[in-house]
Amino acid sequence: AKDPVSVLVTGAAGQIGYALVPMIARGVMLGPDQPVRLHLLDIPPAAEALNGVKMELIDAAFPLLKGVVATTDVIEACTGVNIAVMVGGFPRKEGMERKDVMSKNVSIYKSQASALEQHAAAGCKVLVVANPANTNALILKEFAPSIPEKNITCLTRLDHNRALGQISERLNVQVSDVKNVIIWGNHSSTQYPDVSHATVKAQHGEKHVRELVADDEWLRGEFITTVQQRGAAIIKARKLSSALSAASSACDHIRDWVLGTPEGTWVSMGVYSDGSYNVPAGLIYSFPVTCRDGEWSIVQGLSIDEFSRKKLDATAEELTEEKALAYSCLS
Ligand code: NAI
Q: Residue 313 half-sphere exposure, CB side, CA atoms within 13 Å?
């Protein structure tokens, strides 16, 4: 039997946490033959609720679950973890300035970076979900200099999956037959959902989404805004933000990163930019990636037309501003 993998979930008493931990315990994230240990972290006001989650995990008697640590101690939570899913953060409340929210999250991610750096298992892979996801991941990277930058990522897979969903609905095809959409940039409303290279499996080979949709106005207009604004639409409908889809997408992100992407398929991940596609180096930016042997690499050589170029640049610009804002909170 395989040794258990230890997975940290921060913000585990929250909404996404509640949807995510049973998925991990059932093998959705790491596969049906991989035992797991869960490390759950939240803050003291949520300690009782967190313990309730632990009780439910015990009650569910998951065969793959080999132990649960539920704690409000960051060091205890981070010790020995192989995978860290960072869902905890400070939400923006009504009337709060952007800078105040940034400042709270910068201080959270700075201290959690140090705890991970000192106490996580070697080779720990980090996924930041909490918003502002890209910039929280960047702060985590900056304050955990001994964790390789390739091990620190943020979640844009939910946006990627939303784009697949919209294409599948529009074309009335199975979502599993749609692939190679791309989310570029920030996990925010400036993200660029791009179908320039996306395809749908057809009876003989693959067809381009652009040909099948044959309505560039929709692809460059409503499709993009629907994906960009989907989070807000869910809040409006549910009076709560997306949780099951966020949790499921976080599992997709880690599963593909660890176990690899299928041949000929790429996915979107927020990763440290090396300057590919003229995206400024030193930002955490969402790119198309393939994964193999536990490592992602940015898909190279895709053509970028003028429309796309502008969108890639606009979301990079927002991330550059966010980075500056985050740094201004440090001093
Ligand atoms: P929530 O408010 O239900 O849960 C957040 C939890 O984090 C709470 O239990 C809170 O006590 C905890 N927390 C706060 N500070 C913490 C700290 N310093 N250490 C550990 N835990 C801490 O929020 P929800 O709905 O679960 O969302 C979590 C985050 O995920 C939010 O920032 C949200 O904006 C973000 N999000 C990101 C998505 C993405 O695609 N990247 C999609 C959906 C949500």
A: 8
pLDDT in tens, 275-293: 999 999 999 999 999 999 9
List alpha helices for the chain, DSSP H: 15-25, 47-59, 74-78, 98-119, 133-142, 157-171, 209-213, 216-220, 222-228, 230-238, 244-259, 306-330
Residues with Cβ within 8 Å of 182's Cβ and at least 6 positions away in sequence, in order, are: 160, 192, 193, 194, 195, 196, 197, 198, 266, 268, 287, 288, 302
Question: Is position 228 annotated in a ligand binding site?
Answer: no
CA of 200 from ligand 1 middle (Å) equals 34
How far, in Å, CA of 80 to CA of 72, rounded?
Answer: 16
Is 98 annotated to bind ligand?
A: yes
Mind listing the pLDDT tens digit for each residue in 61-105?
999 999 999 999 999 999 999 999 999 999 888 888 888 999 999
Give me ligand 1 centre to Cα 10, in Å.
8
Whether the predicted interface score ipTM is above 0.95: yes
Q: Which of 51, 114, 131 to mutate to test the pocket of ligand 1 (most atoms within 8 A of CB)?
A: 131
Handedness of CA 67, 71, 76, 78 (dihedral sign): positive
Question: How many Å lie between the centroid of ligand 1 and the Cα of residue 201?
Answer: 36
Going from the C-alpha of 231 to that of each of 3, 67, 136, 227, the distances in angstroms are 37, 33, 19, 8
Q: How far is CA 130 from the centre of its chain?
A: 9
CA–CA gap between residue 290 and residue 268 (Å, rounded) = 9
Whole-structure pTM over 0.95, yes or no? yes
C-alpha angle with apex 131: 50 to 221, nearest 5 degrees? 135
